[in-house]
Design a protein that fits this description.
Oligomer: single chain
InterPro entries: AAA+_ATPase, ABC_transporter-like_ATP-bd, ABC_transporter-like_CS, ABC_transporter_ATP-bind, P-loop_NTPase
Keywords: ATP-binding, Nucleotide-binding, Translocase, Transport
Number of strands: 10
Helix content: 25-40%
GO molecular function: ATP binding; ATP hydrolysis activity
Radius of gyration: 19 Å
CATH architecture of the largest domain: 3-Layer(aba) Sandwich
Number of domains: 2
Protein name: Taurine ABC transporter ATP-binding protein
Number of helices: 7
Pfam families: ABC_tran
Strand content: 25-35%
Strand order of the largest sheet: 6-7-8-3-9-10
């Protein structure tokens, strides 16, 4: 599909510290006597204060790629480097936020946020200060003593984000974190995430099926195709060269044109 909006098919050179470097990654499952190739020749770099959204149809390997970045799975070939160190297992430099919050139901919200800090043996006084800071950042100070079942879906996901941020990871991986929320809550969470991202300057790798969500959030958009999973487009988000007034973003004249462009790109048969 042709579009009058400039879409660069290669990412621009970024003059920021590199956080993640994926080089020639293949990933295959053993299937009877043959291997089933899930990912093929993935090459990808992520930088500080980038919010990279990944789009693609089901089965294109988005979640497999996230699991490799997290250290939950190992590439069949190739390497993943996090801040210059090879990623071979889960570690505190990589935080993960899943579709469901996965909070400990028996712990209060503040205790959930504190949990990772205790595992890192942070002092009690430091933990108290950090928990207070992150509760404020996600606007949950008034809910600090509540249990997860007493919170709405959006509040629980904000608590999960705060728990991830508290351990100060180098990169945050988010696997469709808002897909289970209703439309109004999802929109509010998108704005919360942009606020948090701008304040923390974190590198975020965000998987979504929603093209509009990617256009609202991303500084950079990656499109993957399946069979096997591979990157077919890696581009700066043209709408993010300058921020638009909150609440009017989706009415910008370029928004619908870019939405159709990315939908067509996802549907292309390569």
């Amino acid at each position: 599909m042709k579009t009058s909006v400039a879409v660069e098919e290669r990412p621009k050179r970024v003059h920021k510290p590199k956080v993640v470097d994926v080089k020639s990654v293949d990933f295959a499952y053993a299937q009877t006597k043959r291997e089933h190739l899930i990912l093929q020749n993935i090459n990808l770099s992520l930088y500080e204060h980038e919010l990279v959204c990944v789009l693609g149809p089901s089965g294109c390997g988005k979640s497999s790629l996230l699991n490799i970045l997290a250290g939950f799975q190992h590439p069949t070939t190739g390497t993943v480097m996090i801040h210059g160190d090879e990623q071979t297992k889960p570690n505190p430099d990589v935080g993960v936020v899943f579709q469901h919050p996965n909070l400990f139901p028996w712990l209060t919200i503040e205790k959930n946020i504190e949990f990772g800090l205790k595992m890192q043996k942070v002092t009690k006084e430091e933990r108290k200060q950090l928990v207070a800071n992150y509760l404020q950042l996600v606007d949950l100070t008034s809910a600090s003593k509540k249990l997860p079942h007493q919170l709405s879906g959006g509040m629980k996901q904000r608590a999960a984000i705060a728990r991830t941020l508290a351990t100060d990871p180098k990169v945050i991986l988010m696997d469709e974190p808002f897909s289970a929320l209703d439309a109004l809550t999802r929109e509010a969470m998108q704005q919360h995430l942009l606020t948090i991202w701008n304040q923390t300057k974190k590198c975020i790798f965000f998987i979504t099926h929603d093209v509009e969500e990617a256009l609202k959030l991303a500084t950079r958009i990656i499109v993957m195709h399946p069979k096997p999973g591979r990157v077919v487009l890696d581009t700066q988000n043209p709408l993010q060269s300058g921020r638009y007034e909150e609440g009017t973003f989706q009415y910008h004249e370029k928004f619908m044109e870019l939405r159709q462009f990315f939908i067509s790109k996802i549907r292309e048969q390569a």
